[in-house]
Specification:
alpha/beta, Alpha/beta knot, five-stranded mixed sheet, 12 strands, 252 residues
């Protein structure tokens, strides 16, 4: 069943809503939706409803929301702090993070980030990343649109992680595997942060700064993972231990 987001106002059963302009042409010309067809609409904040198309034209497609559906949201709120990486790798990281149930994505500039971020690029990249989030959330049937924060400096990240369960995978860490950390009880407030470095990893001074701010250094095993692989691996491990990938649906 086709899936659309209608953010901004609550979805009320029996109250007509019009699809956003960006979805209208796709719904009418590509999907060929017509009156009577069933779809799903979500408000981006956790509510999804089954709906029926009541009007379809090249200029407007309107739907009538009905019964509420499961939201598909995990109980754990994961924030991914991701250092900027080159090319289209950031797109892949964002898509996989959304599919795996991340709550918030915070891009930041690390010393080894390539390329370094420029203000003139921020709006264009932010819009593209938001589009990736919407598409991934619709594909995996999430009623919640993960939050995408503006790009931060590394220094701006440090005060954000204080007081929250935070860990940073680092290839030079040997003592604490992430798997061992995840055997402990899940954090209070059901929130966890983690930071993934860029190509080339974090500089030692950055890891030390994160450690002083309260982050725990962990390793992901005997192999060095690419940044985009590490992000997906960490989210999967955390969701399996503390989130909903275990099939239990709650944190023990």
């Amino acid at each position: 069943m086709h899936y659309f987001f209608l953010e901004g106002e609550p979805l009320v059963e029996g109250e007509n809503r019009v699809l956003f302009e960006r979805d209208t042409a796709h719904a009418y010309r590509v999907l060929r939706l017509r009156a009577g067809d069933e779809v799903v609409v979500a408000d981006g904040r956790g509510t999804a409803r089954q709906a029926v198309v009541i009007h379809s034209s090249p200029r407007e497609v309107s739907v009538l929301p009905g019964r509420k559906l499961p939201s598909g949201e995990p109980p754990l709120r994961i924030t991914l702090f991701q250092a900027l990486v080159k090319g289209d790798k950031m797109d892949l990281i964002i898509r996989q993070a959304v599919e795996l149930g991340v709550y918030r994505i915070v891009p930041f500039i690390s010393a080894r980030s390539i390329p370094q971020h420029a203000d003139r690029q921020e709006e264009k990249k932010h819009l593209r990343w938001e589009s990736k989030i919407r598409a991934a959330a619709a594909q995996c049937r999430r009623a919640f649109l993960p939050l995408l924060e503006p790009v931060r400096s590394f220094e701006a990240v440090l005060p954000e992680i204080m007081g929250v369960k935070t860990f940073v995978p680092w290839e030079e860490e040997r003592a604490l595997p992430l798997g061992a950390l995840l055997k402990k009880p899940c954090p209070e407030g059901m929130a966890v942060f983690f930071l993934i470095g860029p190509e080339g990893g974090f500089e030692k001074a950055e890891v030390n700064a994160l450690f002083r701010a309260g982050a725990e250094k962990v390793h992901l095993g005997p192999r060095i993972l690419r940044s985009e692989t590490a992000a997906a691996a960490v989210i999967t491990m955390v969701q399996a231990a503390w989130g909903d990938l275990s099939g239990e649906g709650e944190c023990d």
